[in-house]
Amino acid sequence: MPPLPxxxxxxxRGMVGSAVVRALRARGHERILTRTRGELDLLDAAAVNDFxxxxxxKTVILCAAKVGGIHANRSFPADFMRxxxxxxxxxxxxxxxxxxxxxxxxxxxxxxxxxxxxxxxEEALLTGPLETTNEAYALAKIAALKLCAYIRQQYGLLFHSxxxxxxxxxxxxxxxxxxxxIPGLLRRLHEAKVSGADSVTIWGTGTPRREFLHADDLAExxxxxxxxxxxxDVVNIxxxxxxxxxxxxxLIAETVGFQGQIHTDPSMPDGTPRKCLDxxxxxxxxxxxxIPLKAGLEKTYADFRERAKP
Length: 310
Fold this sequence. Notes:
By secondary structure, this protein is α/β, with parallel strands linked by helices. It has a domain at about 5-175 and about 210-240 and about 275-290: 3-Layer(aba) Sandwich (Rossmann fold), CATH 3.40.50. Helices cover about 40% and strands about 15% of the residues. The longest helix is centred in the N-terminal third of the chain and has 21 residues, at about 75-95. It is globular and about 60 Å long. The termini are far apart.
């Protein structure tokens, strides 16, 4: 890989951003710009503009976002839309105005219509209604990727977007209510094991299928995209296969050593019935996911236990 120009990783302390920084450093890249939220509030347009005017990065990977699971998205839709729109607009516009020649924006597979044909192709975007449980977040992400595409069209700058599937890995959010499915289940099943509980109940029917990608695999894919001379405006990144939530729960129970019963609660929402990405565009560039789900869960559980230490 040829040396990269100065690069700003927005959101470097999150699960994805920290994986990107690890991947860059592993390749010997030292010219990495990072800022914590306390150092640079990405919702403050003036502060973001000043940062770009002063530091002049040439490459940006926009990983920063307000994220959460079904419960958080249903409870705080205005927050999810407002903050994600604000982050995207401030960073993308400041990058355009201050000489950034390449920006890679991170989206989400929830941008695709709820009932789009599986596996989800990039061309399915805006062809039908979104899943209502995370519509606000999805709309913000759609606006960001379209802004990048329009900047590329109007100004000739290589601003493009990657749409990762459901992610997990070290540095995830293990909050008991506002986390995604894997970290949430890891915590609940671990706590059930520790307390000696006989059973755990999970939301929904357990039948929806989801695809999961380790954050370190995503980071490698992003570096592949940065090497591409003429990438598409939008590229899916995923594992290429999915698993029912009920089977995922069993696999996590095995990982943490929980031996009780797992029950489902059909009165709670399932979300999208199935979500698996067509990853043919990114694999055509030579990238393949390398971390099997079981091995990835073991690494993530080790991270959770380390963070849970008093």
